[in-house]
């Protein structure tokens, strides 16, 4: 995709197949200033030709073709090389990182990415809306891409915030049918960690880019926000400062969500532990009652079992019940002694 305010957006499968405007050649398009070329999934042969035409350093070409995932801002002799990561949702609603490789010069910007992404079209619409008011320079287009990628994290963070609030409220209410709460907390914490991983290194990239732009502006004759040909020449450093503020705010929110989730998980596990303790106490109470009943019956079973054998029963030759009462009394004494012993041994 080739874009310039004079020609608009021009697309093609390759440089040779690009739909050129009437009375224009590819050389004419490349001699213009402040144009933007976006390339999707270039091959090794195409990358060699592009590197030769735009004087791209071999290290930069190697990082692009090897799908370098580390976000950074490298300064070369004639351009700045910016790696900035975005993300897409796949068919399973998982986050799939996509890295933008931006080569920013004073006269043009080249962007590389592998796979179709919506950010390019959004930035192009934004450029069309503002090109009558500001001077659309390569630094500003690079800022617009970074800002669009940064803003694309906002809906995901809002979903995380809603999920965190719901989890926190449910943990405080604590109902017995919350068997999936640990799974919900773990899934939400996984999303938070993914967001922190994708946003964590962006601050350093923006800071490095701001430093380079401030140095270039101080060395250039163009002042900040100067009017050039009826349009405002943007102070890109201020725009990048806004991107930095957004990133820091989102990271602070994510750290807060992580704290809330850790507290909710701890509270939920504490409630489960209390519930298990209460259940254990109830079980012990029932077992204690059964122990009392067994303690009472044990001496009776012993005596009755002893005299139930083929032995002579005491008092069998007497017609009164004296021996019977003595036996019952001895059983009662055995029961009392068993209860006393059980209490001493803390069995009940």
Automatic annotation (TrEMBL):
The keyword Cell wall biogenesis/degradation does not apply. One of its GO terms (molecular function) is magnesium ion transmembrane transporter activity. GO terms for biological process: intracellular magnesium ion homeostasis. It is found in: Membrane. This is Magnesium transporter. The keyword Transmembrane helix applies. One of its GO terms (cellular component) is membrane. Belongs to the CorA metal ion transporter (MIT) (TC 1.A.35) family. It holds the Pfam family CorA. Keywords: Membrane, Transmembrane, Transmembrane helix.
């Amino acid at each position: 995709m080739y874009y310039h305010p004079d020609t608009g957006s021009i697309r093609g499968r390759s440089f040779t197949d690009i739909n050129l405007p009437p009375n224009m050649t590819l050389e004419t398009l490349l001699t213009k200033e402040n144009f933007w070329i976006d390339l999707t999934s270039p091959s090794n042969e195409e990358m060699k030709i592009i590197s030769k035409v735009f004087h791209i350093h071999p290290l930069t070409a190697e990082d692009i073709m090897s799908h370098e995932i580390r976000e950074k801002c490298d300064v070369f002799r004639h351009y700045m090389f910016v790696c900035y990561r975005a993300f897409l949702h796949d068919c399973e609603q998982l986050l799939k990182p996509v890295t933008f490789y931006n080569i920013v010069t004073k006269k043009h910007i080249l962007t590389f990415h592998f796979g179709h992404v919506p950010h390019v079209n959004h930035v192009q619409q934004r450029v069309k809306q503002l090109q009558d008011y500001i001077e659309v320079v390569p630094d500003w287009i690079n800022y617009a891409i970074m800002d669009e990628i940064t803003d694309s994290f906002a809906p995901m963070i809002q979903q995380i915030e809603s999920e965190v609030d719901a989890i926190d409220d449910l943990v405080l209410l604590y109902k017995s049918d919350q068997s999936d709460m640990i799974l919900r907390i773990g899934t939400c914490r996984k999303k938070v960690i993914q967001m922190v991983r994708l946003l964590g290194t962006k601050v350093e990239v923006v800071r490095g880019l701001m430093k380079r732009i401030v140095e270039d502006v101080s060395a250039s004759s163009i002042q900040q926000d100067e009017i050039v040909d009826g349009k405002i020449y943007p102070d890109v450093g201020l725009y990048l400062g806004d991107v930095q503020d957004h990133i820091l705010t989102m990271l602070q929110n994510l750290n807060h969500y992580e704290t809330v989730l850790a507290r909710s998980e701890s509270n939920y596990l504490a409630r489960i532990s209390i519930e298990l303790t209460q259940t254990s106490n109830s079980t012990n109470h029932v077992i204690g009652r059964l122990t009392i009943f067994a303690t009472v019956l044990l001496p009776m079973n012993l005596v009755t079992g002893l005299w139930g054998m083929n032995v002579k029963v005491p008092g069998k030759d007497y017609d009164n019940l004296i021996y019977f009462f003595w036996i019952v009394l001895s059983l009662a004494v055995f029961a009392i002694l068993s209860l006393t012993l059980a209490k001493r041994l803390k069995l009940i």
